[in-house]
Specification:
With 244 residues, this protein is α/β, with parallel strands linked by helices. Helices cover 44% and strands 9% of the residues. Strands 3-2-1-4-5-6 form a 6-stranded parallel β-sheet, sandwiched between helices. β1, α2 and β2 (52-55) form a beta-alpha-beta unit. α5 (102-109) crosses α6 and α5 crosses α8 (154-169).
């Protein structure tokens, strides 16, 4: 790359960062969920033009501590005293739940306000704030929950699916890292539906033992695999990101 090209690239990056900080930040709300903490955080770090604030309530929960440890380098930690949620949310442009757990999903889908996360989720929707959810933890048919052995009860899978449909009906957007990144950065997605509950779900009878996981791809390198291989969701998304 020429010196001029390098300088232009550097300047463009700096401009993007300055513009992001001049606008309202994006609020990340952490909830106590299992798995993919660092994998998701590493992908969020690549999303350009977003100024993150991070809210972690109930810090005594170990899963939530793990999440905070994974994402704390992304931005500034936010603090909320639990009062005036509508007014407090005015400082943010949008809100992201990267680790939405079953408890918060259940509260929001049933109109309950028991936890700080559920309160902020529903107030954000009432205010018409763009509200986004990564559904790896709360979609029982996801690869994570299949690996955790939580997808064997078809009735429970259907209930979780309907709860996701409910929050999307209320105005939230749920999907994968690729889906939500495209919407938040106002780019176009090709051949992917935004709300996964409306897409055919993975059969609970399909074992994941033959899938190539994200850890395997990282261990052997992205060049060892193609998108035609039997990849898990996160492994495929990681390869796509690396090929861009």
């Amino acid at each position: 790359m020429s010196e001029q090209g390098f300088n232009d690239s550097t300047i463009n990056t700096i401009v993007e960062q300055v513009l992001a900080k001049m606008g309202k930040p994006t609020l990340i709300v952490l909830t106590a969920a299992n798995g993919y903490h660092h994998e998701i955080a590493n992908q969020l770090a690549t999303w350009q033009g977003i100024h993150w604030h991070i809210l972690a309530s109930q810090n005594s929960n170990q899963n939530l501590k793990n999440e905070l440890m994974a994402v704390q380098h992304l931005g500034t930690q936010a603090h909320w005293d639990g009062t005036n949620p509508s007014e407090w949310l005015n400082q943010y442009a949008q809100i992201l739940f990267p680790y939405l757990d079953f408890a918060t999903l259940g509260e929001v889908s049933n109109g309950m306000y028991l936890s700080p996360a559920a309160v902020l989720f529903q107030y954000a929707l009432m205010k018409g704030m763009p509200t986004y959810v990564l559904d790896y933890q709360c979609d029982l048919t996801s690869e994570l929950n299949q690996l955790l052995g939580l997808s064997t009860n078809a009735a429970m899978c259907e209930r979780a699916k309907q709860q996701l449909v409910t929050i999307t009906t209320l105005g939230a957007k749920s999907g994968s890292l690729t889906d939500i990144k495209a919407v938040m950065q106002e780019t176009k997605t090709q051949g992917m539906a935004l709300n996964k509950p409306e897409t055919p779900s993975v059969s609970t009878a399909d074992p994941l033992s033959g899938y190539i996981t994200l850890n395997e791809v990282k261990s052997k390198g992205v060049n060892a695999y193609t998108l035609q291989d039997n990849l898990t969701d996160l492994a495929a998304e990681y390869i796509k990101e690396q090929q861009q």
